[in-house]
């Protein structure tokens, strides 16, 4: 043994620090139950300047009571917080930076706040650590971003801190575990605290992992992010959905899949019981799903297309419907759904045949991003769902169908389909020479341009013009030509040499609608299994209860 | 709305089926507590032929009592089970197939049973679904392999089914959740059932997720898989470890990392407090770890090298040591460690700079496998840890250091280092013309050769001859030449043109030990911070309690 015996070291500094903070706040709590009225005071005692703080901001569920309280702490006492948030969704999330409480942000997704993040970044009011994917952000909580404090939301808790997150479990377990097992402080806001543990429908997170529960002044905010009103589905969406079903799903025998948000994919969901049924595809494709409980999936479920759906999160209004379909959804013994974003992301990454999604911009090589000038959106789960995991994977018929060589070490591919109209509303081309993201990255001094999905991961590009089977490209040049051939009259599309089209069609590198038996004239709204939210409610037998903003009756 | 209203359908067939089975076994249980003496009878009532059954089989922890019971069920009553097992470790796991109870196997890793699996496969006694990675296997439990029954192991449970898995949490939460929330039956064997819930150290899995607990006849078996006796570390391991520290860790400023099992990586761990310290690298490299609590990491921890360690599982004998180092390890409020293989795999995949591991065979392109003729091992977590996740990732200095172009969309790479001696013991070359795995795959009719790590994911190959910086290769030919240059006198190495060596050294494509300041003569065992298990115990202040087979005193 070497003689340089180390100096005595204290090995429980985190534990002591936590105990010190909790002792300071002990007069504000009864067991783990914090006094709601004095939450700001409590946070001032439980947080220290420079802390790494996870604030749940998810895609749907928001720990909004805690966010509003955190904004009110005295920035002279608590400042330079390093916020770690899956989703930056509420104004309060950025008010923290304006008020000088927080200074650094690591996040995965920003919807409504994307303009303001971009502005704060330019003004130097906020420093961005990195734009993560969801599972990457969770992963870092266990490596180099272990949090000091984690603030989450649940429906109910008992007085021992046992937490019921119900259908909206989402990111909560992955966030809580990182602090609960490394002497961080876990605070959960809940809509209700029950006296008797038996009054909890079930325990989603054990009380031993939660330090404090606090009753919020009103139920946590939840965003119905995945509800698409069928009335807004246009014929072009239907055309593209028909092409997806024939030219991708049927062709490759896609069994398991993830759909992103969007009217294109909503159209696919609504065509399965009509167009898909007529093609005799029921039971042959689209059986196992990883996605939120999209209301537009109801007709396919009711028609017997869907074996299973595992969900990232809940969807507002779908609670009773999912609970009544336990063969399909993941439901607890208490009868309510359980979601889990970390596991569903894993499932979408490693267990499915196909991801299909959309984007705001794509370049001629298929690189895409939703970051455009002035909008720093982040990408949430898209980069993970929308990439072909390298390394080893189990084969499925669809995955194997993309093998292009007879090399004994050849691998298949996960199908990564980008489904884009060539132009956005307002006549902005979707397919562009260079992504805005490249400029944004440079201007913001990012070491890495904020690309969402890299072109080399994209196997299919589907536009209203046709499908480019990019996985068949033998060279970068051919790849470009294939994409250009379906890029319409965008700058990239105009570069296309029409003489090549016939050759590429003949070789199966691209397909126009007629090549896959899709008639443009058939693409009408009459094909939709439901044409309105009201019809979705009908399909569900009244179990789907859409939020007010989606009701027209 | 379409007129083809679906026929009435029952939506809770799984729930009814579960209730029926549980009613049939109700006389064998007191609440969730199953009668240990009648476990075989209970399994015969709770399982049905053709069920998908998860049997925990992990890397370390084994639900061995349940495995022994399952082997005893009457194959006329229960047969054709489809077993899903992270790790096939015990003879009983394969006896199931010999006895005709099970017929299909999906798994991720097989250590001691790899020869027998191979034999059973050839004899048609067993059908393999696929060789998965761990997280891929968990993922499929939520998509197309949802289990009917899940059998796991824990230390303690109370009479409400609350489960304490303690330091050996491993795969359990990911396995249980898939059944608990889809009307599967969850059975946990435990070493002890406590009457008062307060006597559980903590709850790792809530009782509402567990249907049955049963006291095992003896404590569950746990394999000390990650203990490497420093006495078996040879000078060549030390040489290679020095090269790794200088030529990879120092060069790329590796902060966060995963080490595989092996004497090479154990040597690295034991050189940090000596060789690493003299190089002034403490605090600059190797701060955040994702790995099991390797005893050989104790000297580095005690010397202050290590900020954090998140663990896949526990390591036998390390319980008291990890509990006494809560600043470093993930420890619950009760004072014992929590591991979590799913989260640690994610962390190792997305949050670390580097994976370094070894293999039994590697071909001239860097493809590798531990499957050789007659041995179907599976690969556990290696293919996930040992690949560069595509899609978006946060940048770190090490990751960015591997960018090779000034393309604005250029990405860095996770460092995937293969550290192999050119020959195995017994003079079998490690670096070969063609992997045995290719033949094995063909002979077994697998759609995919059982490759562990694909060459295109490998950034560095490190042998006793030198380091090939494969990420710098501009072509496949150059890649081959670089690998051949460090392949010694293997068939691949002999193909190497020595005239190229000087050029490749000058260009920094390869490095010999002297190029990175490593003197072969310095590579002696005197550099090891601990030279025996006894010295590891000393470093730990007596907290490490090695299993008997590692004690020589």
From TrEMBL, chains A, B:
Gene that encodes it: mdcA
InterPro entries cross-referenced by the UniProt entry: MadA, NagB/RpiA_transferase-like
A Pfam family recorded for this sequence: Mal_decarbox_Al
Name recorded for this polypeptide: Malonate decarboxylase subunit alpha
